[in-house]
Task: structure prediction
Amino acid sequence: MKKQQSAESSIIFDGTVAIPETIHKEYIEYGSTINISSYDYKRVLKESNSALFDPHIPEEIQKKLIYLLGQFATAESYKMLKKYVDSLDTTLVPWATLALQEIWFAIENDMHDGNKDMVMSPSGGKGNAIRYYTAFAAEKRIRLTNTQKKIIRQLLQSRMKRFNCEVEEISFTSNYCLTTLLIPMTVAPQTPIDAFLDITSTNKHILKYHFMITNVQPFTPEKIHKYLASLT
Result:
């Protein structure tokens, strides 16, 4: 059973968009209310092109369009969602980021005259797994001891293995941990990471129940420092 504290966890995709787990859960549950096959892709794309960028359109309509674009997962829907996330500052940006995540998980799309291609992670992958870079901050900015680092390393390996994930690399500074993970396209990154944080944060109070993740490129020192500053 998940601990109470985990309900407050957040993901930051590419260091920019924080997504509370409540929104992540709502997004997953939303899928059970939508029959994708009853929607015409071209009509959704055309409507989204205007409705998503019109502040007068009700949020519920925009939310449905964003979700549908994520499910259709074509090159065109990816570009539209990326434009939405990059150009607007609305309450639905986290929702749109999750829709983009659907595409990052390599859902097949129609590209190049109908040939089936895969929308791949910029950071690459291995087999059916996508490479993710993550950052975890120490609880209360404490200085991590060698014993704590050993616990973190062991628990990360064991929890990733449960979900068929692989730990490619793990490194430490005095008060944060960086990892490179290979996570199968069928597994939401938050699932194995939550399993890891349930122990290292909720039970052992070594790490904060919060993390930063990207599948674009390793974090720069500037981005890490900005992330750490946001947690204080």
Notes: The mean pLDDT is 80. The longest helix spans residues 146-162. Residues 17 and 89 are 10 Å apart (CA to CA). The chain is about 45% helix and 20% strand.
